[in-house]
């Protein structure tokens, strides 16, 4: 499958694994469930989108992945404020979210022929 060769997919998978590990001790099941679901959504939508036959469908799912990244970043900000996630972990993960977002933007542009 082509998506497995994409750096953006690989990085988003690594981020999702890290989030599962970093939030394993969070006792608030609702928060932990939401942040891990958001993190899973990113590589899942990249994979689904890249395997679609049309540029329009590819872009649709890549934009969904970008939305999940925004959701994930928000959850890190809130998680830090309520002392569920340490500041350093939040900082590192937010930086990786920004990198993945940039990579997705470039991928979307390349699919639309604007990149």
Automatic annotation (TrEMBL):
SUPFAM superfamilies in the record: IVS-encoded protein-like
Classification via Pfam families: 23S_rRNA_IVP (PF05635)
NCBIfam families named in the record: four helix bundle protein, PRK12275.1-6
Name of the protein this chain belongs to: Four helix bundle protein
